[in-house]
Amino acid sequence: MPDLRQQYNARRRLRRLWTFIGAGKGPETDSDALQLAPDDPYLSFTKADYDGIKGDWLTDNVISFWEEYLEHEKILAIPNAHIVLLRPSMSFMLMLSSDVADIKDALPDFSGITHIFLPINDCTSADLPEGGSHWSLLLVSVLDNIAFHYDSLYPANKHAAEHCFNHFQKLLNKPMRFVNLKDSPQQANGSDCGVYVCVEMKELLKRLLKRDSREQISMSMRGLDVDAERARAMMVKLVDEFRKEGKSRSRSRNRSPSTGGGSKSPPRVGPDVGF
Hints:
alpha/beta; 5-stranded mixed β-sheet; 9% strand
C-alpha cells in the first residue's frame, strides 16, 4: 500500500491545481499551486464549489471554509475554548490510515483539547480527491470519553464513522464509547447532507461554548429544525461578502507595499474565480 502521507499530499496538490484551473490560472509546477502569500485567501473557491452551495453536494473545500469561518467567528472569541474543527481531508486521512502513528505528526496536537469535530465522508479511495456520496458529523468529547455520530441519512455512514472513531481512539490512546444517534435530523433529498453537517456543527459548537463547566448539556439534535435552503443562502452570502473583501484587499495590496507578517483576518475567498 502506498504511503498514506504521500496519498494525502497528492490529494491536496490535486485539489489546489483544480482551484487554480477554476480560477483561470495556470501554475507552472505543483509547488506553485501550493504557495500562498501571507495575505492570500485561505481558500480559493472554484465555480463548482460555489454552485454546490447553491443547490448541490457540498465539497470538502466548502466544509473547510465553514469550519474556518466558525473558528474565527465563534471559537477565537472564547479564550478558554479548547475545541478543534478537524478538516475533511484530515478526517479522511485518519480514516484511511492503517497505522495512526504514521500520521500523528500531520494532525493537530490534541493535548488539552476537550472536543473534536470530524466531518465524515464515505469515500474509501485516496485517489478520488472529491469522492464519496455522503457526509455525516462525528463529535468526540475527550472529556467524557464518548463520540456522537450525527447522520442525516441514518444509518448510512455508520461504518465510515466507526472506522474513523476506532483510529481516533488509538491516536488518543484511550478507550471511548461510540454512539450512533438515531434522532438526528433527516434530510429530504440526496444532496443536503453537507448542509446538515454544517448546521449541526454550528449548533453543537454554540452549546459547548455557552456551557458552564458545572452544567451538563444535551448533545442530541432531536427537534433541531434544519432549513437547508436558508442555510445555503447564508453560506452564499458569506462567500460573496468575503469575495468582495478579497477584491478590496487585492486592490489595496497592489497600491501599497507589503508590510510582511501573517494575516489574522477571517477566511477570505479569492476575487478572481469568475462566478
